[in-house]
Amino acid sequence: MFRQRIVLTAAAGLASTLLLAACGSSTDTASDTSPGNAAPVATASSDPATSAPADGGDSGSGDMATTTMLMAKEIQGMGSVVTDDKGMTLYRSDMDQATPSMSMCTGDCAKTWMPVMAQDSVQAMGVEESLLGSVDRSDGMKQLTLGGWPLYRYMGDTKAGQMNGQAKEKMWYAVTPSGKKSTMAG
Q1: Which residues of the chain are modeled with pLDDT < 50?
Q2: pTM (2 decimals)?
Q3: Which of 18, 63, 78, 88 has the fewest Cβ atoms nearer than 10 Å?
Q4: Could you check whether the bond before residue 40 is cis, i.e. omega within 30 degrees of 0?
Q5: Which helix H or strand E contains 173, and what residues bound it?
Q6: What is the DSSP string of 55-124?
Q7: Is position 183 within any domain?
Q8: CA atoms 186, 66, 143, 5: torsion sign
């Protein structure tokens, strides 16, 4: 089933690329440097794909977290935070590290906090492209990073603009366009 998801996600990414190419290509370019040890992520018109288990822990099957874009969005009372292409808030964790980039969310954690996986490229609106990168995970997948921090989507957010994960367990925070954590209480 996991391989079917990967194949379907790859097909969706290819279809998105072809559609965007037909409508006109992006003039964004890849970043040559990224914070920490995060590998640069090309910024264009591809689909960062699926969720997968995090580094050094239990596999945990976690649901897919897909996006084609990172966007800065103003949330009333919270300021500017980063969302995916569906408007879902993206988070970072204090248990992770940015330099070098490392995800500590494993097993059951990765089921609740879905890692945002990157493949080839991602578009950015209001987010500094030079801060985008990725970190290799133990399963060979790449997790998207911002300012070196691995990015996640929270299962408790069911609608665009929700921030139910803000300050959860005093370690999960919405990520700002500069890669910092939003310190506003949720």
Answers
A1: 1-36, 42-61, 186
A2: 0.68
A3: 18
A4: no
A5: strand 172-174
A6: TTS----------SEEEEEEETTTEEEEE-TTS-BEEEETTSEETTEE----THHHHHEEE-EESSB-EE
A7: no
A8: positive
- Domains in the chain, number: 1
Residue 151 lies in a domain: yes
Radius of gyration of the chain (CA): 15
Nearest residue to 37 via CA among 98, 94, 95, 96: 98
For strands 132-136 and 142-146, give the pairing: antiparallel
Domain containing 71 equals 2-174
Rounded to the nearest angstrom, the gap between the alpha carbon of residue 101 and the centroid of all alpha carbons in its chain is 13
Q: Are 142 and 39 in contact (CB under 8 A)?
A: yes
Asked if 134 contacts 39 with a C-beta cutoff of 8 angstroms, the reply is yes
